[in-house]
Design goal:
alpha/beta; abc type-2 transporter like fold; 2 domains; four-stranded mixed β-sheet; 15 helices; 4 strands
C-alpha cells in the first residue's frame, strides 16, 4: 500500500532536486520558447512570394497587363522578364526561381479570338512548391481573363468558404501539433534522466534500502516532472494565443484534462527509458530516438498517417502524440468535438497504464 508520509517525503525530495538542477528548469521553461518559435516561423507549408520569371514574346498592352498582374500578386515575386527562355532556364537551374511563365508570340491575337493560352513551367524538385506555384499561376491567369472579359463562361458564380481555417494558414494546424511535439520532448527528456541520474550517483541503492515501495518511488519521481511539464504547456499556450494569434474555440478545462492524460504516457515512456538505461547520456539519446522522432514523424503532425504503409500505421498506434495532436487541433480550430476527443483520451490513458505497468514490473525484477 502507498504510504502518504513516505510519498510526500519523496515528492519533496524530488521537487527540491529539480529546483537545484538548472538543466531541468532550462528544459522546462527555455526549451518551449525556442522550439515553439522555431516551429512557428521555420516550419510552414504556405508558399508566399514564389520567385518566378516571365518570358514575354509579345509586347502588346495585354501582355504588359498580365506581367503587371503577376508582379502585383502576393503569391509571386517576379525576378526576371525577358523575351527568350534561355536566361530564365538558367535561373531555374541555379535554384533562383521556381516557375517560368511563357506568354506566346500570338497571345494578343489569341485573346481577340477568345482562345487564350500561356505555358507554365515549374521546378519539380520541390513538389509542394511546384504544385502550389502551378495552381496559383493558373488561378491568377483565369482571374485576369475574367476581369478583362476574355472568357465566355456561364453566369453561375461559385463562392467558396473554408471552415475551421478560413485564412488557409498552415500555422493554424501546425502550431497546435507543435505543442504536442514540445511536450513529448520535454516530458520524455526530463523523466528519462531522473532515475538514470540516481543510478549514476549511487543513491538509487540507498533509496532501495529504505521501506519505500517501487510504486511510491516511481510516482514521487513522476509527479514533480508532471507539474513542470504542465507549466511548459501553459507557456506554449500563451505563446500560441497571444504571440502567434492562433484561434482557440474549445474548452480550456478540456485542454487541461487532455494535457494531463497525455503527460501520463509521455512521462512514463521517459521513466521507462531511464529505468532501462541507468546512464544519463544513453537515456537522453533514447528519449530523442524513441520519444521525439516518432512523435515528429509518425504522429500525423506533418505527414498524414493514412498515406503511410499499413504496417507503419499499426506502429503509430503506440505513439501517444498520435492521439494528442488531433485533440489539440480540434480544440483550437473546431471546438469541443467529443466524438474525436473522448476516444483519443481513452487510448492515451490506456497506453499510459500499459507503460507504467511495464515500468513497475521491470523495476521489481532489476531490484530483486
Amino acid at each position: 500500500m502507498l504510504s502518504k508520509r513516505r510519498f510526500l517525503a519523496l515528492f519533496k525530495k524530488e521537487s527540491l532536486q529539480i529546483l537545484k538542477d538548472p538543466s531541468s528548469l532550462m528544459i522546462a521553461f527555455v526549451l518551449p520558447f525556442v522550439l515553439l518559435f522555431l516551429m512557428g516561423y521555420a516550419i510552414s507549408l504556405d508558399s508566399n512570394k514564389i520567385p518566378i520569371a516571365i518570358v514575354a514574346n509579345s509586347q502588346g498592352k495585354h501582355t504588359q497587363s498580365i506581367i503587371g498582374a503577376f508582379s502585383n500578386s502576393k503569391s509571386f515575386d517576379v525576378k526576371n522578364v525577358s523575351r527568350t527562355r534561355e536566361y530564365p532556364k538558367q535561373l531555374m537551374q541555379e535554384n533562383k526561381i521556381k516557375t517560368i511563365i511563357i506568354l506566346p508570340k500570338n497571345l494578343e491575337k489569341n485573346l481577340s479570338k477568345f482562345k487564350p493560352k500561356i505555358q507554365i513551367l515549374t521546378d519539380g524538385s520541390e513538389l509542394n512548391v511546384a504544385g502550389l506555384s502551378a495552381k496559383y499561376a493558373a488561378g491568377l491567369w483565369h482571374l485576369w481573363l475574367e476581369q478583362n472579359h476574355f472568357i465566355k463562361g456561364s453566369k453561375i458564380q461559385i463562392h467558396i468558404r473554408y471552415w475551421f481555417n478560413s485564412p488557409l494558414l498552415s500555422s493554424y494546424f501546425l502550431l497546435p501539433g507543435s505543442i504536442a511535439i514540445i511536450l513529448t520532448l520535454i516530458g520524455t527528456l526530463l523523466t528519462a534522466l531522473v532515475v538514470a541520474r540516481e543510478w549514476e550517483r549511487g543513491t538509487m541503492e540507498a533509496l532501495m534500502s529504505t521501506p519505500v515501495s517501487i510504486t511510491e518511488i516511481l510516482l514521487a519521481k513522476l509527479l514533480p516532472y508532471f507539474v513542470l511539464a504542465l507549466m511548459s504547456m501553459v507557456i506554449c499556450m500563451l505563446l500560441s494565443l497571444f504571440w502567434f494569434k492562433i484561434p482557440f474555440h474549445g474548452s480550456y478545462l478540456l485542454l487541461f484534462l487532455s494535457s494531463c492524460i497525455y503527460l501520463f504516457p509521455a512521462l512514463s515512456i521517459g521513466l521507462l527509458i531511464s529505468t532501462l538505461a541507468k546512464n544519463q547520456f544513453i537515456a537522453a539519446q533514447g528519449a530523442l530516438i524513441s520519444g521525439f522522432l516518432p512523435a515528429m514523424l509518425l504522429s500525423g503532425f506533418i505527414f498524414p498517417i493514412s498515406a503511410m504503409p499499413i504496417w507503419l500505421q499499426y506502429i503509430t498506434a503506440i505513439i501517444p502524440a498520435r492521439y494528442f495532436i488531433p485533440i489539440l487541433q480540434t480544440l483550437f480550430l473546431s471546438g469541443n468535438v467529443y466524438g474525436i476527443i473522448l476516444p483519443n483520451l481513452l487510448y492515451m490513458f490506456i497506453l499510459g497504464l500499459v507503460v507504467f505497468g511495464i515500468i513497475i514490473k521491470i523495476t521489481k525484477k532489476k531490484l530483486a
